[in-house]
Q: What sequence folds into this?
């Protein structure tokens, strides 16, 4: 049963079509991967589902639990349980890890903050009072982003390039986090270039040029992925329209 | 409301009851209480409209516990003038936590005029926390001229922790000799028709002197802020940095004028200034966690000013 349905979704930015009549069903409680070459529209799809500023003028519709969320803002979508883990998470001068996670948390307790930090492999005592700023490495920031998502207990999570900036050891913690989200019955969407990340999913959608090229189980998508989207006419013609405003 | 209430408001009452913690409490132009520790001398003279305070720390004395100072006005209308003369001896150190409390002010003017000398290889830290009324009827003029001897360190933080700014006009000038270190930070959030003016000047005149001037300001409604930072370096290997961030919302107006002046080829001064609305990515990150826009803005600003 689908929890979120993207129906005939099209989006143009700066006069360029980035998503082109895209229809995808995300099944509830499953882990999905959205893969494809640079400029395929993967991140744009996530931003559009989240309803970020600049990604709201869509054609088609997005349904969550069967109800259109097209006219809802970011916070309203998040209150329904939709969230996004950013490829390069924002840094906040002066805001502590505790404040950041607590702001997202469903249960606003220090124990929750400690618990989720431990789950992503960060010692709470070392991080809880630190600022979510440039003093954190990219990997640390990524883990704190995941911790805040775990604390939120969302129903539908999109993780944009969850392995970016992460070392091999830390990647296992990210994968454990993905499993934890699934164990909470969250639906997870992994936006990725990485085969290792895609293999964490049960189903995958291959995008190219803003279109859905293929879908199915991982085994079905893997050959396309390994051959860099060979059957696709857009191969090696990544979008250069600068859509990634973030 | 009396002075006891002010101290409770600033959560100072416990510190002031500790015999090992030096303190000075002033209400308008009266010295209400004073406690000293060995090596620290504080002489006061009550004036018609304020108090003259002379602080002296003996050579070689490092005070472990923070010294608490409280400058309060319990009235709605008043002028309070504090003349402060601070002299820190050689190889000495002191950290001062100063609360300036004007909770009922509808027309209060608080003028702080300080001369500070920090001796060779000594440190002086001055943390100034303000509690104002919500009326905005207060004018605050903190002015200080600071001289840092060789290897001296000076750190000051100005912060409004409760109430409205009213009118604030900070004017600090610091001069540092060889290997001295100066750090100045101001954190203020203005609302309604508040007016904030911050002028911080650092003069790195000694070899290897270092300094950082940091300002964090948020203005909302019709508040205005002007930050004027100037860092001069005239000696070899002097290093300075000016860092100003201002967030504006509504009809707020913010101005930043960073000036860096280097008069020695081996000195180096940098600056960064950013003025604008709340960062879109920060905002959308918090909103994607379920915070409303207003809550997200509040959290971002509170972090910036924390």
A:
């Amino acid at each position: 049963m689908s929890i979120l349905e993207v129906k005939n979704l099209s989006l143009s930015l700066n006069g360029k079509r980035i998503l082109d009549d895209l229809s995808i069903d995300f099944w509830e409680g499953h882990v999905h991967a959205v893969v494809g070459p640079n400029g395929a529209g993967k991140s744009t799809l996530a931003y559009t589902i989240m309803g970020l500023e600049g990604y709201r003028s869509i054609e088609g519709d997005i349904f969550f639990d069967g109800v259109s969320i097209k006219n809802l803002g970011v916070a309203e979508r998040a209150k329904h349980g939709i969230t996004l883990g950013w490829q390069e998470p924002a840094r906040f001068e002066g805001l502590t890890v505790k404040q950041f996670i607590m702001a997202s948390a469903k249960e606003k307790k220090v124990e929750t903050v400690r618990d989720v930090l431990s789950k992503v492999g960060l010692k709470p005592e070392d991080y809880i009072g630190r600022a979510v700023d440039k003093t954190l490495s990219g990997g640390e920031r990524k883990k704190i982003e995941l911790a805040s998502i775990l604390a939120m207990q969302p129903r539908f999570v999109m993780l944009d390039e969850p392995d970016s900036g992460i070392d091999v050891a830390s990647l296992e913690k990210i994968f454990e986090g993905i499993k934890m989200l699934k164990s909470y019955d969250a639906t997870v969407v992994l936006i990725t270039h990485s085969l290792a990340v895609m293999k964490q999913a049960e189903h995958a959608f291959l995008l190219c040029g803003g279109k859905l090229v293929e879908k199915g189980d991982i085994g079905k998508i893997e050959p396309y992925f390994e051959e860099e989207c060979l059957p696709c006419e857009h191969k090696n013609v990544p979008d250069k329209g600068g859509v990634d405003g973030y | 409301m009396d002075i006891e209430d002010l101290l409770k408001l600033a959560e100072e009452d416990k510190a002031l009851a500790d015999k090992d913690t030096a303190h000075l409490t002033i209400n308008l132009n009266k010295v209400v209480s004073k406690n000293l520790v060995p090596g620290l001398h504080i002489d006061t003279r009550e004036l018609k409209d304020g108090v003259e305070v002379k602080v002296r720390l003996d050579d070689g004395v490092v005070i472990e516990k923070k010294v608490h100072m409280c400058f309060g006005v319990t009235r709605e209308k008043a002028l309070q003038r504090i003349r402060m003369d601070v002299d820190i001896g050689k190889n000495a150190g002191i950290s001062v936590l100063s609360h300036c409390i004007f909770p009922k002010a509808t027309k209060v003017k608080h003028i702080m005029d300080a001369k500070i000398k920090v001796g060779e290889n000594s440190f002086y830290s001055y943390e100034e926390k303000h509690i104002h009324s919500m009326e905005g009827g207060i004018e605050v003029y903190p002015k200080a001229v600071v001289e840092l001897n060789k290897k001296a360190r000076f750190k000051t933080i100005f912060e409004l922790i409760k109430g409205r700014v009213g009118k604030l006009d900070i004017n600090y000038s610091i001069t540092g000799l060889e290997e001295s270190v100066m750090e100045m930070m101001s954190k203020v959030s203005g609302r309604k028709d508040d007016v904030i003016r911050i002028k911080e000047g650092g003069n790195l005149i000694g070899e290897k002197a270092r300094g950082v001037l940091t300002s964090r300001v948020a203005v909302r409604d019709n508040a205005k802020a002007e930050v004027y930072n100037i860092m001069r370096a005239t000696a070899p290997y002097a290093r300075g940095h000016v860092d100003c961030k201002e967030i504006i919302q509504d009809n707020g107006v913010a101005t930043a004028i960073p000036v860096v002046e280097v008069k020695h080829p081996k000195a180096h001064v940098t600056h960064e200034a950013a003025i604008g609305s709340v960062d879109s990515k920060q905002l959308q990150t918090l909103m994607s966690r379920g915070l409303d826009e207003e809550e997200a803005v509040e959290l971002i600003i509170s972090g910036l000013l924390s």
Remarks:
- The first helix of chain B runs from residue 3 to 9.
- Residues 4 and 301 of chain B are 32 Å apart (CA to CA).
- Chain B touches chain A at residues 216, 245, 279-282, 284-293, 295-296, 299-300, 302-306 (CB under 8 Å).
